[in-house]
Design brief:
Elements lengths: L1 H22 L9 H7 L13 H33 L12 E2 L4 E2 L1 H24 L7 H31 L4 H5 L15 H6 L8 H23 L11 H26 L1
Antiparallel strand pairs: 1-2
Length: 267
């Protein structure tokens, strides 16, 4: 019995001594260089990326020309349709960012248009330069989502305002009976870029519209410079989240001022 207890104690002692020793890397002998090479072959260096900046520049130019030709085709089709329907509406080249409700240039649609063109051109330039589909940063599609939401909301507000104006202008029974002093026909509103982008309905310079246009220009210039410098014309740049937040605040200010003007007009 005593011998068995002694053997058991010896085994436990050897176990307690061996486990820490195996866990200690300093006690494990290093493997010879030849053996290490045999068991773990050296990794081959990554092949350098085939980047051709001239090809990337050509891809960006082709994308820009494709956008211009496609837009011109759509404008020509819209003009033919307007003539066939007899609407008499004048279709312009930049009709894409004209709000149909009030026939005015929309700053939110303009921003969405410019950012769409910039992303398409840089995406095509990056793809042609490296011949691989570039990764789209998370903040980039967040910014595009903010621009799209602002454009849709602005169009909805314009449609609501146009609907209220149409209802208000409906002829009443008294107006139909009394034709002594006919009302003066309403002057047709034609799109004017400077007036619609920078001025309000009272022909006064509008601060929310002006600051939104300024942020659009500054952010686009920063994005293109980052693409050429940081991304080296190959990778789409990561837009700082602070810039996305500032653009969102700019949109909120513009839409809030537009909604407040509608409420004031109603009152």
């Amino acid at each position: 019995m005593g011998l068995r207890l002694s053997m058991f104690a010896l085994c436990v002692s050897l176990f307690l001594f061996t486990v820490p020793a195996l866990a200690d890397e300093s006690l494990i002998p290093e493997q010879p260089a030849e053996t290490a090479l045999e068991t773990k072959p050296a990794e081959a260096p990554a092949a350098p990326m085939d980047v051709n900046h001239k090809r990337g520049f050509a891809g960006g130019v082709v994308a820009l020309l494709f956008i211009a030709v496609g837009q011109n085709f759509l404008v020509s089709a819209a003009r033919r349709r307007a003539r066939n329907l007899g609407t008499g509406r004048e279709i312009k080249f930049f009709d894409l960012f004209i709000t149909p409700g009030d026939e005015s240039y929309s700053i939110s649609r303009l921003q969405m248009y410019l950012w769409t063109v910039a992303v398409i051109v840089t995406f095509c330039a990056s793809f042609m330069a490296a011949m691989k589909i570039p990764d789209i940063p998370e903040t980039l599609y967040m910014l595009m989502g903010v621009n799209l939401a602002a454009a849709v909301t602005s169009s909805a507000l314009a449609s609501v305002e146009e609907g209220k104006a149409t209802t208000a202008e409906a002829p009443s029974v008294e107006a139909a009976v009394d034709q002594t002093f006919p009302a003066k026909p309403k002057e047709e509103h034609k799109p004017d870029f400077i007036r619609d982008i920078f001025f309000d309905e009272a022909d006064s310079l509008d601060l929310p519209r002006t600051q939104m246009f300024a942020w659009t220009v500054v952010s686009l210039i920063a994005y293109l410079v980052m693409f050429l410098k940081t991304g080296n014309g190959v990778e789409l740049p990561v837009i700082p989240q602070g810039l996305v937040v500032l653009m969102g605040v700019s949109h909120l200010g513009y839409l809030g001022a537009k909604g407040a003007a509608m409420v004031g007009k109603k009152g």
